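note to self — DONT lose this again. spent like an hour looking for the file last time. sequence + predicted structure for the chain T wanted, 460 res
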Amino acid sequence: MTEMKWERLWARKYSPFVASAFMMFFVKDRQFGYCGNKLFVPEGNLMAYYCEKSEIDALVKNYENFLRKQDMAEYSVAYEKEIEKLLLFAENIKNINPDDLDRDGLRTLLNRLKDEIIYSATYQFYAFAVLLGPATELEDKLSITPEGEKLMQIITTPYKHTQITRAHLELLKIAAEKDRSKLNYYATKYAWIPVYEPLDKPWTEGDFLEQYEQIKNPEDELSRAEKSQSENLAAYRKYLDTIEDNDFKKLVEIVHYFSYLKEMRDDYRRRAYWILQPFLTKLASVIGLSFDEINFLSLDEVLASISASKSVIGKEELAARQESFAYILNDGKLEIFSGQSAVEMGNKMLPESSSDLRGMIASRGVATGKVSIIYHQGEFAKFKEGDILVTTMTHPEFLPIMKKSSAIVTDEGGITCHAAIVARELGIPCIIGTKTATQVLKDGDIIEVDADKGTVIKIK
């Protein structure tokens, strides 16, 4: 495991079911390269994802070369349609009862589901490849220019609203109208927003009511959001017209389009996972497992269990995986570990931590406050008004606590990341890409976030 040179890409909270799909992208499909060596290991409360460095570097470069030959307006439409495919498949099977299919029919359906999830994971990763490649390249080029920070904000303004953004604007309109009666329908329409993987719980009307009650000036928020987007897009088009270097202009266009496409993925994958929840619940009962337990099988183990008419993984092993698990992909062959052996694998890969926290300035300002480390929506309840949000990376469901925070600090991120875009919209000091903030800081620490200098200082 340590003989290879590993590139740590991100840390997230995934169960084995979805994680197995991310382990298998670019193994069979080698359009932009082969990524047959990966790790998915415990890191604190999350799971860290690693690719073999030479493989991922080649993939990122090949994809950038491909994008440079595309008409980005046309490609963005095609890309979104590819991302939508998993949702369309989920909608097609949502009313199927596994008990109504014979074993061959069920195996055929699950093979298709496996292929769709892996295909979706592959396309989802393309946006991350842009973050690793073109976005980082643009960030470096603009960082040495006098107006680089402002230009990055303009370039990374999404060219249209995602459905999750539209949901937020719709809630603001409901608040402006002071019409709580609309929350029931709204909750039905957008329950899927926090479902990052099938195991996650959807939001209820009560969750949305809590968000509704936190809104102080809905008219002002609506006005600022619409004005900010229209002004930034106008500035982007004007800036693009001034660029004479065609290579640099293409780089700017790629980053601009993926500022929307990267966030758009959640519109489809989250709804798909939400729709699949009842189907997976029924499927679990066919092989004698609970809904939670089936999420701790890999995709291949689910298929094997259907063939065996029972779970091929025992209850004791499933319980161990729920405590801790790890994946190793060695030249395309996937192996899963659990319990203490998984923990030890994760410990070997832990990045070196430093008490000196520095990162990239995503939104300027200075704030002092109490640290609240949040990894997942299940921890939102502990977050208090004025706390400083410290996390690996924010996601759309983080918006309610982001609005309550006095500053945001993340381990990961680049100029197109969710935290950077939202923090600028909210006018909250934000530092991204510190790498180790969630390891160095603890809940309750008092820190100063100086997003004018890019530093985080622990006061006490």
